[in-house]
Specification:
mainly alpha; 434 Repressor (Amino-terminal Domain); 60% helix
């Protein structure tokens, strides 16, 4: 049985739903057809910039390509926390390069020992 990644499955599902071949979608995204095939067959995990190009080619929001994350009570973060909805909205307005910078900073904060909350610093502004 072939392995599968949620992103690849979702891309394939959306592509087929729009009745696009891999070649047509690859052309719209500006990549080789084999690149799309590798993503759909779990041989390649695209980065944020490529995900944005694929989302644009499919005429969907980039978040539609990502699998939903569940939290402890089984709800999606956006359902459970209005802050998450607001944060997601602002994040989606960023340019791809800005998204990468934000993600890099979050990774740096998570890697810090001990992990310090940045919320008080934001509230102090």
């Amino acid at each position: 049985m072939a392995r599968s990644l949620p992103i690849g499955r979702k891309i394939r599902e959306l592509r087929k739903g729009k009745k696009l071949t891999q070649h047509q979608m690859a052309s719209k995204a500006g990549v080789p057809r084999t690149y799309i095939s590798r993503i759909e067959n779990a041989r390649l995990l695209p980065g944020p910039l490529m995900l944005q190009r694929i989302a644009d080619a499919l005429h969907v929001a980039i978040l539609e390509l990502l699998p939903p994350r569940r939290i402890a009570n089984g709800h999606l973060p956006s359902e459970a926390d209005p802050f998450w909805t607001s944060l997601s909205s602002y994040f989606m307005q960023l340019r791809p390069r800005q998204m990468l910078l934000v993600l890099d900073r979050v990774r740096d904060m998570v890697a810090e020992k001990p992990i310090h909350s940045f919320t008080p610093a934001l509230l102090a502004r």
